[in-house]
Design brief:
Thioredoxin_CS; Thioredoxin; 5 helices
């Protein structure tokens, strides 16, 4: 194969990789609306907060975050939600570690961590956020709910 063809092939592969990375980055952390969201059963997923089982959803919105042990972005995302929860008592954040819960990863199609399911006050999934959440995305999701 001539050197010019090899160089062109390498440049083409680099351009394709950069384009794929930019598309992935643009989509990460943004909410995707769920049209027929299922109702989450907190007991079934083993939701725990401060060592106690969670039995009720947030009055306005619940952020159900799926994390894994070695996920740095998961800790940052949980911190954002926890700070928000302190300021707004009608908001609830639940973090579920799926490291050893393949059943939950399969059931909710978790392909990356963090993944956050946004739930209404009845526990119905209204949207899904893949990757580290953006502050504006959180504000937009909160604004879409009324108490």
């Amino acid at each position: 194969m001539p050197i010019e063809t090899r160089v062109a092939l390498i440049i083409g592969l680099l351009a394709l990789s950069v384009a794929a990375g930019l598309i992935w980055r643009a989509r990460t952390g943004r909410a995707k609306q769920v049209t027929k969201g299922e109702i989450i059963n907190l007991a079934e997923i083993g939701a725990v907060k401060n060592g106690q089982p969670v039995t009720k959803f947030g009055q306005k919105v619940t952020f159900l975050q799926f994390s894994s042990e070695f996920c740095t972005a998961c800790r940052q995302t949980a911190k954002l939600y926890s700070e928000l929860e302190k300021v707004h008592p009608e908001i609830l954040h639940i973090e579920v570690d799926i490291t050893n819960r393949v059943d939950l990863a399969n059931k909710f199609n978790i392909l990356q961590t963090p993944t956050t399911l946004v739930l209404d006050s009845r526990g119905r999934v209204t949207s899904r956020i893949g990757g580290a959440v953006k502050q504006q995305t959180i504000q937009d999701e909160i604004g879409s709910f009324e108490i």
